[in-house]
Design brief:
binds magnesium ion, 5-stranded mixed β-sheet, Phosphoribosyl-aminoimidazole Synthetase, Chain A, domain 2, 16 strands, 352 residues, single chain, alpha+beta
């Protein structure tokens, strides 16, 4: 295929000789996803909201600041240890609102079902969505249902769009990250990815690994109520903690220096990662986030996060430096250092 294919006087920004078709890695959250977004979507769809480069868009309005975000959920299998696609599709969007410092308010729910989906499965998922919405204090106010032709076993895909309100005057986002900030991680990493992988592969470990899937708005709202000056937050979902940090270092044009040995990883998760040749820093989570606060507020922030069951293991994992801009390094206990970068391929596809 020629690279110079023209459409409406424009050339396709993705080299067609290399990628004539979409592959799984385009959905990994790594390099190929970033290429699609930065090279194809952004130049065409660019505006001041997308420029925020945040987990959601803060919409300015004379009376209130509104936050809007959207997420599609394509996880396989639909049920896995610790959670399911229903909870994930609510908490995932609630968490993106929370990462913007917003109170979750309203949610849309779009179900795309393949002909053949078991009615019992749908019933269980809808119940789960109801429970998760209640726990997140968010109302489902609109939705859509579509059925597509049968190609497989009766798949279910869910899109949710969330709207929240900013009930404070703080500005939270990648552009607020400053050298000197402490980086707090809210808990142990890698459980969601490994829980999904083990149920997909039919593997069992001595202790069952449960997904960390959980809503994060309660922690965030409590930090805000206590006037913690939050510079930025990001949930460590697809691509794991490393991908979230690499993106933020790039967006804030600062340097993050991490201490690899303090990052909490459950022993069974560590063992499973070694078995599959995965790096826990890049394995998906659904209830973990990184938080950037000035050093003077780090102890108080930690104390507040520790008071929540989903934040018991929160810890300072590093700090922000001025240079080298846009990079992340992790030092191990022996003084060795590695540079973290975006992955090109997909460690685990269809994880969220
Ligand atoms: Mg996010």
């Amino acid at each position: 295929m020629p690279d110079n294919l023209e459409w409406k006087g424009q050339q396709c920004p993705i080299p067609l000789s290399q990628y004539p078709k979409i592959i799984m890695a385009h959905g990994s959250g790594g390099k190929l996803t970033r290429d699609l977004i930065h090279r194809m979507f952004e130049p065409i769809l660019k505006n001041q909201y997308l420029d925020q480069g945040h987990d959601g868009a803060v919409l300015e309005n004379p009376d209130a600041r509104i936050v809007m975000t959207t997420d599609s959920h394509v996880i396989q299998p639909l049920f896995f240890p610790g959670s399911d696609i229903g909870k994930l599709s609510v908490f995932g969007t609630v968490n993106d609102l929370a990462m913007c410092g917003a109170t979750p308010r309203w949610l849309s729910l779009s179900l795309i079902m393949e002909e053949g989906l078991e009615m019992e499965t749908l019933w269980k998922v809808i119940q789960s969505i109801g429970e998760a919405a209640k726990e997140s204090n968010i109302q489902i106010v609109t939705g859509d249902t579509k059925v597509i032709d049968r190609k497989g076993d009766g798949e279910l895909l869910i899109n949710t769009t969330g709207v929240g309100t900013l009930d404070h005057t703080q500005s939270v986002g990648p552009s607020e990250i400053r050298p000197g900030d402490k980086i707090i991680l809210s808990g142990d990493i890698g459980r969601h990815g490994i829980a999904v992988l083990s149920s997909r592969e039919g593997l069992s470990f001595e202790t069952e690994i449960m997904s960390d899937c959980a809503p994060l708005h309660r922690i965030v709202l409590q930090l805000l109520e206590n006037d913690i000056p939050i510079h930025c937050m990001r949930d460590c979902t697809r691509g794991g903690m490393a991908t979230a940090l690499v993106e933020l270092a790039d967006q804030s044009q600062t340097h993050f220096e991490l201490r690899e040995d303090v990052v909490p990883v459950n022993e069974t998760v560590q063992g499973a990662c070694e078995l599959f040749g995965l790096d826990p820093f890049y394995v998906a989570n659904e209830g973990r986030f990184v938080l950037f606060v000035p050093e003077s507020s780090a102890d108080k922030a930690l104390e507040l996060i520790h008071s929540h069951s989903e934040g018991k293991e929160a810890i300072v994992i590093g700090s922000v430096k001025e240079k080298p801009k846009g990079s992340v390094t992790a030092a191990n206990a022996y003084g060795g250092r590695r540079i973290l970068d975006l992955l090109t391929g997909d460690q685990l596809p269809r994880i969220c």
